[in-house]
Fold:
Amino acid sequence: MKETAVQKKVQIFQFDWTAQKNRIIGMALILSIFLVAGISISLGEYNIPLDQMRSLVISQITQQPLDAADQKAATVLFLIRIPRIMLALLVGAALSASGAAYQGVFKNPMVSPDILGVAGGAGVGAAIALLLGFPTIGVHILSFLFGIGAVTLVLLLSKLVGKSQGTLLIMVLSGVVISSIFSALTSLIKYLADADDKLPEITFWLMGSFARSGSYQNILIMGFVLIIGGIPLLLYRWQMNVLTFGDEEAQSLGIDVKKTRLIIIGCASLLTASSVCLCGAIGWVGLIMPHITRMLVGPNYKVLLPITLLSGGLFMLIVDNVARLVVPGELPIGILTALIGAPLFIYMLFKGRSNWS
Amino acid sequence: MKLELNHLQCSYDEKIIIDDFTATIETGEILCLLGPNGIGKTTLFKTILRFLPIKKGSITINGQDIYAYSKKDYAKLIGYVPQSHTPPFAYTVMDVVVMGRTVHMDAFGSPGKKDYAFVAELLERLEIEDLKNRSYTELSGGERQMVLIARALAQEPVFLMMDEPTSNLDFGNQVKVIKNIKDLSKQGLGVIMTTHSPDHVFQCDAKVVLMMHDKRYLVGHVSEILSETSLTDTYGVHIAILKDYYHEQSFSFCQPIFETKR
Structure:
């Protein structure tokens, strides 16, 4: 069949349009992040109007002394609100990217850091470290090791039960089992913890919140983790596509399956573990954000992974705003993500059921 | 180029499935693996693809042991067309076929304009360019088989391994796939395929390995190997081979004989 020049042009236009569409979605997300972050800065129990914010920023740069009222506003703005917003963005991006990576590497759209037990495992690791009074770096390392341990257990269990042909369901069920073991361990740690000192610390932190974690030190930690965990994921994002076709096919297509899978699982677990260390268990983000993003831009990780970093960050920022603005005081954000995430997931189960066996 | 299997022993789960297996295939040839269920076609196949280790003997390409090639170099030599299945995500056909280009990308590479152009041209050559923007998960069995063939060809391999390429296809699609395989071998590709249909081996006019019980293997051209005796022995049912002419061309085909009481 010979194509006319016009048909060829139409095809080229269509092909460019998908690429263009993805670019527009990316730009829109970046703009939205700046917009929402800007609005979030001025909103809160302590309102900071725009003109006051401007004068505060100017005086901060020029190092001018402030009067008492401005001093308080400056503290809220620079030491509480801005760090919290930045951390919410970073953690949202980390959780969402790690969820997308797990889904790819396990060729299973129903897994996430929570379902694979990584979040639970990382939580136990961090709680043990807190109980033993480890320094920050120790908390992160132990949490990472427990997170990796959890996902390894889930993999082993689903391999043993599923006999090499691990189905979607067996992996999810294995995750449920391992998660429940880790949640029992968490309870045990709480039981053992000193009721005056350690117990409240562990309990509040486990509920998941940005309220106490927004500091510049934590932003540095999370930013650093996002770089060392996120960059390899971005570099291997094309390989993730190939891995979704299964080990044998990926190998026949020239991928070093074991090495690639190990790197991806390691990076994704690091992202999850550090998020859990800083903000506690914030569930569902790693499951639903990759799905929503996939609906927007398709399953190709070349586009999906960078976009899911942005959408995950934006989602977390919005939910954190709701957590701190809707109720006087503060709502643990983990409660909100579950209340939003679960119904969304049910909706997606219905929508996507034709594709999942 | 020549792929040689020398006195190969393969095992699966510690059980020896294939023993003392010797065969060769050159580029431009078709080699069909024919035999009953459970005889070890898949095990042999997976051993050649390096999914399963070699127990004894050797497999060489161009005289060099296959394990001497890096994973990437090996993927440039051998393309794999699996039986069609459903991947977890709804990639477009373009995305799926471009994955075949992965071997020609850098370690952290992703496909560029050249790869998309290469694939667009390949899809045109296989006459499936209209599938390009469709979702792979929504295709019919025959269409998926063609897309998987395209993906393997995008690797630009020297040999193509096809695992029952005609299974789950309707009659028309089976014929189309066989025609494609013949065309590919004429263009210089070496094709190794497993099949359950002796007729397909006749249609390919190919080299065949008839895998029989007790680890006996008959290797040679289809006209020498497939006979009433050998097929009846292999499958345990009475199979006759008939020959007929159509427009001065001769055709052989199998016919099971059902013993009827008089």
Summary: The two ends of chain B are 55 Å apart (CA to CA). Chain B touches chain A through 37 residues (CB under 8 Å). The first strand of chain B starts at residue 2 and ends at 12.
